[in-house]
Amino acid sequence: MLVIFVYLLCLNWISYFLSYFQVPGWILVHEGDKWKLHQSWKVKTFVKGMEFLRLVADVAEAEGHHPDLHLIGWNNVEIDIWTHAVGGLTENDFILAAKISKLNLHHLLRITPTNK
């Protein structure tokens, strides 16, 4: 039987993982009593926003780790990543953020980010 332990990260480890996993554009948000990774984008159209979320959902499903995905208005995409089971950040959150950051999403965005 395989047992996997997921540990809630302290702020020192969060800082380490931010640099180790190279997650450009992701910011730390302290909401209530938990830390989350957050990023937002502006997409060209509503349909491009849905395509953006589908591409992220495919990665999340493959990882078995599901972020909070939001399409706000017709062109604002926001993602919050945190591990619900522990009420904060784990290493898996940074792995997922890194994989999302590596997706080719530029053709869906209104403005191409300069940091990618």
TrEMBL record:
Keywords: Lyase, Membrane, Transmembrane, Transmembrane helix. The chain crosses the membrane at residues 6-29. One of its GO terms (molecular function) is 4-alpha-hydroxytetrahydrobiopterin dehydratase activity. Belongs to the pterin-4-alpha-carbinolamine dehydratase family. This is 4a-hydroxytetrahydrobiopterin dehydratase. The keyword Iron-sulfur does not apply. It is an enzyme of class 4 (lyase).
